[in-house]
Design a protein that fits this description.
The chain has 132 residues and is α+β, with helices and mostly antiparallel strands. The chain folds into 2 domains: 63 residues, Winged helix-like DNA-binding domain superfamily/Winged helix DNA-binding domain (Arc Repressor Mutant, subunit A); 59 residues, OB fold (Dihydrolipoamide Acetyltransferase, E2P) (Beta Barrel), CATH 2.40.50. The chain is 31% helix and 22% strand. The strands form 2 sheets. The chain has a 5-stranded antiparallel β-sheet with strand order 5-4-3-6-7. α1 packs across α3. The chain starts with a helix and ends with a strand.
Length: 132
Amino acid sequence: MTTVGHIRNELLGLFRRNAKVNYSVASLQRALKLRDSADIKNMVTALNGLMKESFIHQNEQEQYSLGAPKAVIVGTFRGNDKGFGFVSVDDSTDRMCLSPHQTRSTLLTGIRLKSTSCTQPNRVIRGGLMAK
């Protein structure tokens, strides 16, 4: 039987080597070559601990990846004649700036948007923008 601490270190190493990969429990089990049910239970315990410490997070598809989950920001888009856009964040006085490329000239003033790529208002959104 492998200890929770050892599995935790193996998981962190795997996530850091493949920072952009999402893993299911089954794929993590295969990657760490865990076969014993006690080892799998220890892996789940290690995963829960890593999530609690914000080293990893679990997405809606129940896959794990490195880093804390991104905040979801919802707001209303306003464009200007130079092609730039601004999103007034709901429940806040903050606004986010969008470049002309990000507005894709298809966004209309007043449209509702949701972004998961920018966790700090008053910063340029880097992608992940979608109409709500």
